[in-house]
Amino acid sequence: MTSIKDGDTVRIHYTGTLLDGTVFDSSDGREPLEFVVGSGQIIPGLDEALPGMAEGDKKKVNIPCDQAYGPINPALMQGVPRDAIPDEIPLEIGLQLQMQTPQGQPMPVTVAEVGEEEVMLDANHPLAGKDLTFDFEVVSVNAG
């Protein structure tokens, strides 16, 4: 069997969990995830776990936040006056909203805090600042 190396296209089945065991994503019931190893298409910690593996191999890896979605970036937290948000939007912590960047690009945000005068919106990835665990199996390898 050929060992996986950068540039190979692989397909994996996986389950991603937080350290407390909460599943945040899984390919269960879906097609395997396909990507090119070393291309930056997936988080670095998972990408770096693949070289040397082969089709049929299974592995469990713990990935620190700096090798996953990164630490929480305080610059991506922004307070918005509460009266700037339309009344029909129910302001609940955890609510996902979409804003626009100054360039007009859509940007997903999460309501992090709701105060009397201000609402704190968080544009960090929902898994930023979290260490992750992936259980995965290599389904196929195509040499690059």
Topology:
Layout: E1 9-18, E2 23-26, E3 33-36, H1 44-47, E4 58-63, E5 77-81, E6 96-100, E7 106-114, E8 118-122, E9 132-142
3D architecture notes:
- This protein has 144 residues and is mainly beta.
- It folds into 2 domains: 9-70 and 127-142, Chitinase A, domain 3 (Roll), CATH 3.10.50.40; 74-122, Thrombin, subunit H (Beta Barrel).
- The protein is built from 1 helix and 9 strands; from the N terminus they run βββαββββββ.
- It has one helix spanning 44-47, and strands at 9-18, 23-26, 33-36, 58-63, 77-81, 96-100, 106-114, 118-122, 132-142.
- Strands 1, 2, 3, 4 and 9 form a 5-stranded antiparallel beta sheet that branches. Strands 5-8-7-6 form a 4-stranded antiparallel beta sheet, with no helix packed on it.
- The protein is elongated, with a radius of gyration of 19 Å.
- The model has no long low-confidence stretch (mean pLDDT 94).
The counted number of beta strands is 9
Compute the average pLDDT: 94
Largest sheet: 5 strands, antiparallel
Helix tally?
1
Instruction: Write down the CATH class of the largest domain.
Output: Alpha Beta
Strand content of the residues, in percent?
Answer: 35-45%
What CATH architecture of the largest domain do you see? Roll
Write down the domain tally: 2
CATH fold annotation of the largest domain: Chitinase A, domain 3
The gross shape turns out to be elongated
